[in-house]
């Protein structure tokens, strides 16, 4: 499973993107569970966020959804920070 | 039938209209129901208020005037994301050990004072609204935002950004989003969104200049100068004096702001480039303010404030609409033959915004 996260906006307006490929990873199972929940709670179009809030685009195996701060689900928040931290 | 009575007082006093609009469209009836009812109630109240203001002279006794003192509360999110978090300092309480809390508290005070002393505005709604801020939001959080009700500050990751309360203009920037929400309510997308961002940078910069007693010539016209971690190659996050030159760094990339319409960036990202194209109106303000000299909040700032709060600026305004209103406001406030409207007109011309 390929999990791609792109973050735009924020006070600084600086973009960040990263991707994790879970194939062969020992923790692939946890990634999949997290990604599925995060995507299920996402939206098909970018929600209008709050001023200076981050906007996120999540793409999991070709399916793209959007979400934005501060209204993220626990799973979205966890997935986004994991991918931006551990991904390339 | 289940009622959600507990939610309603919160909705009717605190939640701003655009948040209500969003909630009203929510799939969750626990959210959408009260929000819809509040929207209806609010529009009733608004029309009543209009009637009241028309008869204000005749009506007695007058409503209680808002206080000249702020009503500040700082909360600590404890590196979590629940808002507002734990109350750590209320109005009039002594400073504590946490420098972040103290900076937020002082920044709220400086912003309140600037809007009151320079423009006679009582808090962000003009009616003494309490000022709330939450610090230590999330972990290594590289951002600060306005959620429609309060300010939220992250600590930064220490590698790119330090604590977001470090620059007073950032605190002023976030609170000005509140002022804009209660006045012109510029839509946070595309050109009106870039104007919304520019209002926050303009008044954020003015709050810093006011606090330091700096003239337009003395000011650095930088936004977030204290925010960059020591390893980052750059001076600040944005420069109103020279948009596009604030930073150029391996990790951060290069400051993408244009200074003129020739370099206007068309993009769907960042809400249609709100933090990018704000460089254009930011630079126009800088040009007008430095041409007029003296304290920037007295002339250029007053003109911009008049437009933001004057009622003619629409939610969907483009740069040219805004520019036209600033020239009109300059004439109205400082006279037809004055240098003020000429400086404003010239500033827009130099950034390539045509006044039709
Ligand atoms: Zn902003």
Question: Would you spell out the secondary-structure blueprint of this structure?
Answer:
The complex is a heterodimer of chains A (about 90) and B (about 350).
Chain A: E1 2-9, E2 16-21, H1 28-40, E3 54-60, E4 63-68, H2 74-86
Antiparallel strand pairs in A: 1-2, 1-3, 3-4
Helix pairs in contact in A: 1-2
Chain B: H1 8-13, H2 17-24, H3 29-54, E1 72-76, E2 86-90, H4 99-119, E3 131-135, E4 144-146, E5 151-153, H5 168-182, H6 190-212, E6 222-223, E7 238-239, E8 248-249, E9 253-254, H7 269-277, H8 279-292, H9 300-309, H10 319-334, H11 339-350
Parallel strand pairs in B: 1-3, 3-5
Antiparallel strand pairs in B: 1-2, 4-5, 6-7, 8-9
The structure holds zinc ion.
Zinc ion sits at the interface of chains B and A.
Q: Oligomeric status of the shown chains?
A: heterodimer
Strand order of the largest sheet of chain A: 2-1-3-4
Spatial extent as radius of gyration of chain A: 12 Å
Largest sheet of chain A: 4 strands, antiparallel
Q: What is the topology, as strand order, of the major beta sheet of chain B?
A: 2-1-3-5-4
Helical proportion of chain A, percent range: 25-40%
Mean pLDDT reading of chain A: 94
Structure notes:
The complex is a heterodimer of chains A (88) and B (356). Chain A has 88 residues and is α+β, with helices and mostly antiparallel strands. Helix content of chain A is 30%, strand content 31%. Chain A contains 2 helices and 4 strands. Chain A has helices at 28-40, 74-86; strands at 2-9, 16-21, 54-60, 63-68. Chain A has a 4-stranded antiparallel beta sheet, covered by helices on one side. In chain A, strand 3 (54-60) and strand 4 form a beta hairpin. Chain A is globular. The mean pLDDT of chain A is 94. The model of chain B is unreliable at 1-23, 27-31 and 33-60 (pLDDT under 50). Chain B contains 11 helices and 9 strands. In chain B, strands 2-1-3-5-4 form a 5-stranded mixed beta sheet, covered by helices on one side. Chain B has a two-stranded antiparallel sheet with strand order 6-7. In chain B, helix 4 (99-119) crosses helix 6 and helix 10 (319-334) packs antiparallel against helix 11. Chain B is α/β, with parallel strands linked by helices. In chain B, strand 4 and strand 5 form a beta hairpin. Chain A binds chain B through residues 8-15, 47-55, 69-70, 72, 77, 81, and chain B through 18, 22, 81, 83, 139, 142-148, 152, 161, 164, 170, 173-174, 177, 181, 188-189, 196-197, 200, 224, 237, 252-253, 256, 269-271, 274-276. Chain B: Its EC number is 3.4.24.-. Chain B: Residues 60-97 are annotated as: Disordered. Chain B: Belongs to the peptidase M4 family. Chain B: Residues 184-353 form the Peptidase M4 C-terminal domain. Chain B: This is Neutral metalloproteinase.
